[in-house]
Amino acid sequence: MSIEILAPGLLTTVQDGGRLGYAAIGVGAGGAMDGVALRLANILVGNVDNAAALEITLRGPRLRFRDDSLIAITGADIDARSDALQVPTWRPVWMRAGAELAVGNIRSGARCYLAVAGGIDVPMVLGSRSVDVNTRVGGRPLVAGDILPATPTAFPVPASSAFVAAKWSLDPAPWFDHDCAQPLALTPGTHFSDLDDGAHAALFNTAFRISADSNRVGYRLEGTPLRLRKPLELVSAGIVPGTIQLPPNGAPIVLMAEAPTTGGYPRIAHVIATDLPRLAQHKPGDSLRFTQVSLGAAQKRYLEREQALARIANTVSERLHDPL
Amino acid sequence: MTIEPLGDTALLIRLGERIDSDLNARALAIAEALRAAALPGVSNVAPSYASVCLRYDPAAWTNSRDAQAPYDGIAARVAEIATKASGGTTGITLPPVEIPVCYGAEYGPDLAEVARLSGLPENEVMARHGAAEYRVAMLGFAPGFPYLLGLDFALHTPRRAHPRTRVPAGSVAIGGAQTGIYPRELPGGWQIIGRTPLGLFDAAREPPALLTPGQRVRFRAIDAGEFEQLLR
Fold first, then answer.
1. Distance of CA A255 to CAs A11, A167, A268, A323, B29, Å?
2. Mutation for B interface: A272, A299, A300, most B CBs within 10 A
3. Mutating which of B4, B6, B8, B13 best tests the A interface, going by the most A Cβ atoms within 10 A?
4. Burial class for A303, CB neighbours closer than 10 Å (0-12, 13-18, 19+)
5. Which of helix, strand or coil describes residue A94?
6. Contact B191, B112 (CB under 8 A)
7. How far apart are CA A255 and CA A67, in angstroms?
8. Given an 8 Å threshold on Cβ–Cβ distance, is B6 in contact with A189?
């Protein structure tokens, strides 16, 4: 009743919907960077959508399924193979006991998610199975030899192949932006109006590049330095994933899943919740642009997304009754 | 008091922009009242020096009868609760925690610098740091990292020009008007004056953080022998 890690890949971690409720003691939420891809992978295997799955970064792991297992891969576009055959993504796939899965390099995007029916059953720490890579709350990234407890699922057809994939799949288009071409939407932050005119223009009219020292905590952006009209004296206050802080060097930092719970730099803007998963599919060296939306428009998009995900969950759960 | 969006899934109640015992007491009281109110869709309520951060699920604040954004609904409700709580004081009545600290030498490599900048002898810095009663204003920066109110004015010391890449776990440090304790090895720019052998954070322990916002703290000076003994 388990999955064996033969090779870990670049950075493969167990992630779920995050560690909520501990901000007051300085523990951030963490969880999947592309939270929507995680939810869709879970939906495809019949799990609750915030169940623990594998987050695979840039170069994937090699795994062996010790039991018959139902899996699904979503998120970034990757090359996954079993027995030299391509394993299709964005759909349920039944892996036969003993089958190996080699997840190769990501072709576009930065992170993909591999969900297993029943969820990955590592111990909960503070209400979550997520690994916070930076603070090490919840464990550590996977290494070769790790055994992940998981629930076996009956293999649906007798066959000689290592896996059987459903003939239907989800359309990734609404959820995964291949070329990262769409600008990311921002709502203004507390100190947005403290930016000088040049900074306002640069924020929305120029491109930024994601610097090499970006990770699950935050993305540092290189581009035209942003300046304030005058320096601000601030005391530390709450920040959340999506918050864009502006340190004195003028290079903005977008806080990501492992954002600390407090920060003392000006909060110039926030990437909206529906665009954070898209930002999570950018990698160091990628460039991006911003556009401004109202809070009302951002929350409307959020509600529409939740409705769309609920519709998909309903459709998929019906199909899983007669899976192939 | 202002209530403002912190992106589209959180909001911030701001009371001011300074480190001040009264503002912090109000923030703690508001956070407590908001937690007690158990508003729908709220996953986190966290006080800071002079503000409270609240995370919420906008889907829990939709109202089909009117067109207002989820933020408007929750902000109005939060304003009512915060206004009522803001005048009061926190009901937190936890016993004070005593934290043993070994000051100076390898445990507090910046004690001499703090002494120089304050114009006080090292033993006077230790005595003043140890004499005050502190209150935990907030936890942040890292899991279990407490920011303490009550630092003697004479000990306010600028941060180091060159931050350290590794500050040992347990380091008791001063950054400007702030004093705090590093729960684990972290990078940091504060002046390190001592170290405690106590564990400030352990996710496997209940409660995981040694200190909580509002709690009173006292330091007790110990020598290197007691430090090593307590560490075991």
1. 19, 39, 12, 39, 28
2. A299
3. B8
4. middle
5. strand
6. no
7. 39
8. yes
Across the interface, whether the CB atoms of B48 and A235 are under 8 A apart is answered: yes
The whole-number pLDDT of residue A157 equals 66
Q: How far apart are the first and last CA of chain B?
A: 47
Domain ranges of chain B: 2-86, 97-231
A29:B44 CB<8 A: yes
Substitution target in B12, B35, B44, B56 with the highest count of A β-carbons within 10 Å is B44
CA B74 to chain A, closest CA, distance in angstroms equals 13
Yes or no, beta carbons of A296 and B69 under 8 Å apart:
yes
Interface check for A261 against chain B (CB to CB < 8 A): the answer is yes
Helix axes A35-44, A295-319, angle to 10 degrees: 20
CA proximity to A149, closest of A1, A298, A319: A1
B2-86: CATH topology is: Gyrase A; domain 2 (3.30.1360)
How many Cβ atoms are within 10 Å of A127's Cβ, its own excluded? 13
- The residue written with tokens 């503002």 in the block is B23
Residue-wise pLDDT for B75-108, tens only, equals 999 999 999 997 766 656 778 999 999 999 999 9
Give B26-55 pLDDT, tens digit per residue.
999 999 999 999 999 999 999 999 999 999
User: Of B52, B70, B143, which has the smallest distance from its Cβ to A26's Cβ?
Assistant: B143
Q: Is the dihedral of CA A303, A309, A315, A318 positive or negative?
A: negative
Nearest in space to A260 (alpha carbons), one of A140, A135, A136, A141: A135
> Using a CB-CB distance cutoff of 8 angstroms, which residues of chain A are in contact with residue B209?
25-26
A304 in reach of chain B (CB within 8 A)? no
B5 with A295: Cβ contact below 8 A:
yes
pLDDT, tens digit (0-9, with 9 covering 90-100), for B138-180: 999 999 999 999 999 999 999 998 889 999 999 999 999 899 9
Indicate the helix (H) or strand (E) that contains A291: strand A290-292
Q: Is the pTM of this model over 0.90?
A: yes
Report residue A155 as tokens.
């293999």
Q: What is the CATH number of domain B97-231?
A: 2.40.100.10
Domains along chain A with CATH numbers: 2-176+308-319 (no CATH), 184-293 (2.40.100.10)
